[in-house]
Write a structure and sequence with these properties.
Blueprint lengths: L12 E7 L6 E3 L6 E3 L10 E10 L10 E6 L15 E6 L7 E4 L17 E6 L4 E3 L5 E4 L11 E9 L9 E11 L12 E7 L7 E6 L11 E6 L7 E5 L5 E6 L10 E10 L13 E11 L6 E2 L3 E7 L7 E4 L2 E2 L8 E5 L9 E3 L5 E4 L10 E10 L6 E11 L7 E2 L4 E5 L7 E8 L11 E3 L10 E5 L4 E6 L11 E9 L7 E13 L5 E3 L13 H33 L29 H4 L1 H6 L24 H16 L49 H7 L11
Parallel strand pairs: 6-12, 13-19, 21-28, 30-36
Antiparallel strand pairs: 1-4, 2-3, 4-5, 7-10, 8-11, 9-10, 11-12, 14-17, 15-18, 16-17, 18-19, 20-23, 22-26, 24-27, 25-26, 27-28, 29-31, 31-34, 32-35, 33-34, 35-36, 36-37
C-alpha cells in the first residue's frame, strides 16, 4: 500500500505505478494506493521486482511528491523436487572387491532457495539395490556393501537412488535416478577340463603338421583372464605330438609332429596341462591356476603305399660297362597287414633316364647304353614302387649313379704350347715351366712324368727337367742361339700318367729365338729385327728416317736443277757444230743401254737438227730451230772425233760416256777370275770366320751369322 501525507482522503490525490511488472504482474488502486498481484509469482523464474510509485494532483496533474522506488521480493516455498541432471548413471567395480569399495558419486539439484528454510536441503537413499551397495545420505557416494561379489555369479546390478528435500522429512519432495553397476572380471578362477580323459582316433596316413584333434579347458573368467596355454607333459608318446592354443576359441589343437605307423604302434597316451597366461597375485591362495587331463590316441590302420628300405640309393659303375650289366637294386615292401607284392618302374622325365632299366619284379638296375664319364659323370633319376593290390598307391625314391673313370685319355701339355729363348741364353737356364692336364678324372695322387723322346736325347739344344710334382722345366743346353741360323725350335716332350693302364702322349713345344737385353728382357722376336741397329730407341729410328727423307729431297732437287742447267747449256749456241755433241755426265748402262745414244748423229750433221732428242728420257716440249746447211766436207768432224778418241784412250779416268760394249761370254783370262760359287772347291763350313769376332762390336752380327756352331743342323729339335 502506498500513501502520501498530502492525501486528505477527499480524492484529490492520484497514485501511479511503473517499473518491472507494472500493469502485467502488479496493479495499483489510483485512489487508495493499494498494490495487488494479478498473476501467480514464481521465485525460481524471478526472485524480485523493482517498481517506482508517485502521487500526483488530480486536477493539475502535477506530482505532489518526488517519485519513490521500492523492491518487491518473492518469498520461496518448497515447490521444486530434487533432480539428477546426469542420470541415469553407469558404473563398474571389480569383482571380489572388499566392503566399502568406491563405485560412483551421484548428485541431485533442487531449484528452491537454499537460504530460506529446508526447501533445498537434499538427502540421498537407496530404494533398490540393497544389500549389495550403500550410499552416503549427504554426499551421494555409492560403495559396495557386501564382500566377494562374484562376476561369474552375477555380473549386472541396477540400483535405484532417491534424493528428497526438506532434509528427508515428511512432506518433502523427492526425485529418483538409476545407476547400472557392472562387476569387472579378475582372474580368480583357474582353467578346468570338463573331463579327465579325451579319446581321439587318428588315421596312420595323417600328414605331419596336420591337426588331429581338439581339447578344451573351461575358464569362467573373461577376456585376457580366460586365456589358456596348453602344454604336453613329457612322457609316453608325447614326443610324436604337439599342441597349440586357438586364440579365438581357447581350444588346444593337437598336431602331428612325426608320422604314425599302425604296424609299429597302435595307440599313444599322454597328458596335457592347461594354465592361465595372466595371473593375479591376490588369488594365489585359491590354488594352482592350471589343470591336467589325459589324451588317448588310437591309430587307425590305412592302406599305405610301399616303403623303400632307404630314403635314397647311391650306386657306382665304370664307364664303358657292357649294356645289360646289373649295377644295383632297390627294395620296397608293403608294411600293411595284407602284405601285397610290389612292382617297380622308372619315373620317365627326360632322355637321361633311358641309360638304365629297372626290373619290375626284382628292382635290379642295369645299364641300357654305354656310359661315358667325360660326357656325363653322374645320373640322377627316380624309381616308383606300386602295390599290386592297389596300383594307385605308389612311392618314389631317388637313385644317384656315379660313373667311375677308366684311364682312356693320355695327358697333354697345358698352355702355353709356345715359348721363347734369348739369343744370349746360358746353358742350364730354365726358359719355361710346363704342366699337364688329363681329360680323365684324375684320382688322388695322380702323377705326371715328363721326358724327351729317345731320338731327341742325343746332343739336344734343350732338355726337360722333371720336378716330380706334376711340373717340369725346359732348360737350355747351349751357350747362345742365333736367329739368323734358326729362328724356331720344335721340342718334343713325352708325358705319362700314373693310372692303369698307363697313357702317354708326345707334345711339341715351339721355342722361338728372341733378342734380349743383358737382363733377359725380350726386345724383339721378329726376323726383320735382325738387321736393325742394336741399341737404337724408337725416337732415334724416327730421327734417322727423317734425315734420310730430307737427304732424298735434297738429292732430287739437285738433280732437277742440274738437268735444267744442262738443257739451258745445250740451247746456248747453235753456231759451233761441236755444241751439238750431246754430253751426258752418266756412266754407261752396259749391254742394256745400247739404245741410249745414237752414234749416227756424229757422222751426219744433218741428223743433229732432225733427231737430237734423247730416246732414254721423256722429251721436253719440241722446239723448232733453224736448219743449217750441211757441210760439204766431213773432214773436220772426222778429225775432231779422232782427236777426242785418242785423248780419251790415253786418259784412264775418263768414263765411257758414249761407248758401246757387248759381251757374249765370260772371258777366261780375267785377272779377278770367276766370282761364281758354283765351281768353288770349298764350302762355307770349311771357311774360318772366327777372326770376325776380333773386329769389335760393329761386326758382332756378321760374326754371329758366320760363326761356327756346336750343334748338328740336320737334327731340328
Amino acid at each position: 500500500k502506498l500513501h502520501s501525507d498530502l492525501d486528505k482522503g477527499v480524492g484529490t490525490v492520484k497514485y501511479t505505478l511503473s517499473g518491472d511488472g507494472a500493469g502485467t504482474v502488479f496493479t495499483i488502486d489510483e485512489t487508495t494506493g493499494d498494490i495487488h498481484a494479478i498473476k501467480s509469482l514464481d521465485r525460481e523464474e524471478k526472485p524480485f521486482y523493482t517498481l517506482r510509485a508517485q502521487a500526483v494532483d488530480v486536477d493539475t496533474k502535477k506530482p505532489l511528491e518526488p517519485e519513490s522506488e521500492f523492491i518487491i521480493k518473492v518469498q520461496d516455498i518448497n515447490d521444486n523436487e530434487p533432480k539428477f541432471l546426469d542420470g541415469p548413471y553407469v558404473a563398474s567395480v571389480p569383482e571380489m572387491s572388499p566392503v566399502g569399495a568406491y563405485v560412483l558419486q551421484v548428485k541431485a539439484t533442487d531449484a528452491d532457495d537454499p537460504t530460506y528454510g529446508n526447501s533445498a536441503r537434499v538427502v540421498y537413499s537407496i530404494l533398490q539395490g540393497q544389500p549389495y551397495f550403500s550410499i552416503d545420505p549427504k554426499t551421494g557416494v555409492i560403495r559396495t556393501a557386501l564382500p566377494n561379489m562374484d562376476r561369474e555369479v552375477k555380473e549386472q546390478y541396477q540400483v535405484l537412488i532417491q534424493a528428497k528435500d526438506m532434509g528427508g522429512q515428511l512432506g518433502g519432495l523427492a526425485g529418483t535416478t538409476t545407476v547400472n553397476i557392472t562387476l569387472t572380471d579378475v582372474n580368480d578362477n583357474p582353467p578346468r577340463f570338463p573331463k579327465s580323459i579325451f579319446h581321439l582316433k587318428v588315421p596312420e596316413t595323417s600328414h605331419v603338421g596336420s591337426a588331429i584333434g581338439r581339447i578344451r579347458a573351461v575358464d569362467p573368467d573373461f577376456g585376457k583372464n580366460a586365456e589358456i596355454e596348453y602344454n604336453i607333459v613329457p612322457g609316453d608318446g608325447g614326443n610324436l605330438f604337439d599342441i597349440t592354443t586357438d586364440e579365438y576359441t581357447q581350444e588346444g589343437v593337437i598336431k602331428l609332429k612325426k608320422p604314425l605307423d599302425f604296424e609299429t604302434k597302435k595307440a599313444y597316451t599322454f597328458k596335457v596341462e592347461a594354465s592361465n597366461l595372466h595371473l593375479d597375485h591376490r588369488f594365489h591362495s585359491v590354488g594352482p591356476f592350471k589343470d591336467t587331463a589325459t589324451v588317448k590316441i588310437n591309430v587307425l590302420d590305412m592302406d599305405e603305399p610301399p616303403v623303400f628300405s632307404k630314403p635314397m640309393y647311391t650306386m657306382e659303375v665304370y664307364e664303358d660297362t657292357p649294356v645289360g650289366t646289373i649295377i644295383g637294386a632297390v627294395t620296397a615292401q608293403d608294411l600293411d597287414a595284407g602284405s601285397s607284392s610290389v612292382r617297380y618302374f622308372m619315373d620317365w622325365k627326360n632322355d637321361v633316364d633311358s641309360y638304365f632299366t629297372v626290373d619290375a619284379t626284382e628292382g635290379t638296375i642295369a645299364t641300357n647304353e654305354l656310359l661315358d664319364r667325360e660326357s656325363t659323370a653322374q645320373y640322377n633319376f627316380s624309381i616308383i614302387a606300386s602295390k599290386v593290390s592297389n596300383p594307385l598307391l605308389t612311392s618314389k625314391v631317388n637313385v644317384i649313379i656315379n660313373v667311375l673313370d677308366v684311364n682312356e685319355f693320355p695327358p697333354e701339355i697345358s698352355v702355353p704350347y709356345e715359348t721363347s729363348v734369348c739369343e744370349n741364353a746360358k746353358p742350364g737356364q730354365v726358359i719355361q715351366t710346363i704342366t699337364a692336364a688329363d681329360k680323365d678324372l684324375s684320382p688322388a695322387g695322380q702323377r705326371f712324368s715328363f721326358k724327351l723322346p729317345s731320338e731327341a736325347s742325343n746332343k739336344p739344344n734343350f732338355t726337360v727337367h722333371d720336378y716330380r710334382n706334376n711340373t717340369a722345366g725346359i732348360e737350355t743346353r747351349r751357350n747362345g742361339y742365333s736367329r739368323r741360323q734358326q729362328e724356331l725350335y720344335f721340342l718334343p716332350i713325352v708325358i705319362e700318367d700314373s693310372s692303369y693302364p698307363v697313357q702317354s702322349s708326345t707334345n711339341t713345344l715351339t721355342i722361338r729365338v728372341c733378342r734380349c737385353d743383358s737382363d733377359g728382357t725380350i726386345q724383339s722376336c721378329n726376323v726383320e729385327a735382325i738387321f736393325l741397329p742394336v741399341g737404337l730407341s724408337t725416337g732415334a729410328l724416327i730421327a734417322i728416317l727423317l734425315c734420310i727423307v730430307i737427304l732424298l729431297v735434297i738429292v732430287v732437287l739437285y738433280v732437277a736443277l742440274r738437268r735444267q742447267k744442262k738443257k739451258d747449256t745445250l740451247m746456248t749456241s747453235k753456231e759451233d757444230i761441236r755444241d751439238n755433241v750431246i754430253h751426258y755426265d752418266d756412266e754407261g748402262g752396259g749391254e742394256e743401254d745400247t739404245q741410249a745414244f745414237d752414234i749416227g748423229a756424229l757422222r751426219n750433221p744433218k741428223v743433229i737438227e732432225d733427231n737430237k732428242i734423247r730416246r732414254d728420257i721423256k722429251p721436253d716440249t719440241l722446239r723448232f730451230t733453224r736448219h743449217r746447211p750441211a757441210a760439204e766436207d766431213n773432214t773436220d768432224i772426222r778429225d775432231f772425233i779422232n782427236q777426242r778418241l785418242q785423248e780419251n784412250d790415253v786418259d784412264p779416268s775418263a768414263p765411257p760416256y758414249d761407248s758401246l760394249a757387248t759381251y757374249a761370254y765370260e772371258g777366261n783370262g780375267s785377272v779377278a777370275e770367276s766370282l761364281s760359287s758354283i765351281d768353288s772347291l770349298t764350302t762355307e763350313a770349311d771357311q774360318d770366320y772366327d777372326y770376325l769376332s776380333d773386329w769389335g762390336p760393329r761386326f758382332k752380327i756378321l760374326a754371329d751369322m758366320f760363326g761356327e756352331e756346336s750343334y748338328n743342323p740336320d737334327k731340328v729339335t
